[in-house]
Amino acid sequence: MQKKAVILYSGGLDSTTCLAIAREQGFEPYAISFRYGQRHSHEMEVAKRNARPMGAADHLVVDFDLRKMGGSALTSDLAVPKTGVEENEIPVTYVPARNTIFLSFALGWAEVLGAFDIFIGVNALDYSGYPDCRPEFIEAYEKMANLATKTGVEGSKLTIHTPLISLTKAEIIKKGLSLGIDYAQTHSCYDPAEDGAACGLCDSCRLRLKGFAEAGVSDPARYVKG
Amino acid sequence: MQKKAVILYSGGLDSTTCLAIAREQGFEPYAISFRYGQRHSHEMEVAKRNARPMGAADHLVVDFDLRKMGGSALTSDLAVPKTGVEENEIPVTYVPARNTIFLSFALGWAEVLGAFDIFIGVNALDYSGYPDCRPEFIEAYEKMANLATKTGVEGSKLTIHTPLISLTKAEIIKKGLSLGIDYAQTHSCYDPAEDGAACGLCDSCRLRLKGFAEAGVSDPARYVKG
């Protein structure tokens, strides 16, 4: 029987590649997505449409509303910046404790499924400056997770896999292409048009476009005509 | 200006005492509660009614549905045990990763509020055998939390306070009484009657009643007539 793994899955480039890597490593992927008060619903539509075609055995969507808390351009009326990625600064699109919250739901589901592996597509290079994407955060999370659950008490070991952590965006894209991913079916934009076309200007679009350029491949995603 | 602290608050005996202790220590308490698919809504009604009278500056209720995940008597159709607290065994009322999830939302809210202190009323003695109530879990969570957020990046230190961790239930009750808590306004039962009366038989009721007995005080809460 295949070992189950829970994959944090947003329908974007990184998490889709992460899911494909989990499959390549022999895991049966259980995709988990979060509707947390993002400004646009397009991301979730993409995730719902693509989770099973991308190979997920099951897809769990967890709903909660981070807008009640505020504190981020992604969950409030703050403007999403379109002028380029700031160096050495945590951007306003940072959502307080987002990956901590996401991983905690993944941890709960893993325990219910009897899975001992969680995949998260964080990246320490092209990572937009979010504190909860750093390798030392993931290590500390794994230690905590092994004390938080029955798994730890019963002596099994839960592992947080971060297969993208030391890859450039270009390397992620090349890896994904080698695994047969159609990146036209992935969505990365923080602030898409109503028809779902990517803006091409937010941090996430800029990192993605730079990655495709460096990989020497054209991005098949649909962008707003400039 | 008073320092803000986020308090995990269910309206029960432990978290209400915890909130009072945070006030005693000079913090301005921000109470956070979770509607996570519990079988009964009574707990949340109690929490909503009492948070501000108990001294909370604000009360945030976060909604999500752990029933989609299953795995616990508190969020599924599994029966709540009424025959006594099992020793050395994790009971079916354990909710996978619940405290990890709760603390993660508290962490996000703390960051938005500019708070560096989180209070959780876990208890290592009369603790029902949940892995996520152990001191080593809390220590690991605090380490992780300091890497997860801007707070950590900017050099401030976030502290997870567990003022009840080494107290017996009787000591918690005596502490709360000395701080003026009216325990008639707190709710602990896992499986209350429709009118909100506590069952007196579930683990939570048994631990509470034993605590009042040991404190030499009668429990002012309303129980189902046996």
Automatic annotation (TrEMBL), chains A, B:
Cofactor(s), by name: Zn(2+)
Keywords: ATP-binding, Ligase, Metal-binding, Nucleotide-binding, Queuosine biosynthesis, Zinc
A single GO molecular function term of this UniProt record: zinc ion binding
Enzyme class: ligase
Residues the record lists as binding ATP: Y9, S10, G11, G12, L13, D14, S15, T16, T17, C18, L19
Pathway: Purine metabolism; 7-cyano-7-deazaguanine biosynthesis
Domain of life, per lineage: Bacteria
Annotated cofactor note: Binds 1 zinc ion per subunit.
EC number of the protein: 6.3.4.20
Family note: Belongs to the QueC family.
Protein name: 7-cyano-7-deazaguanine synthase
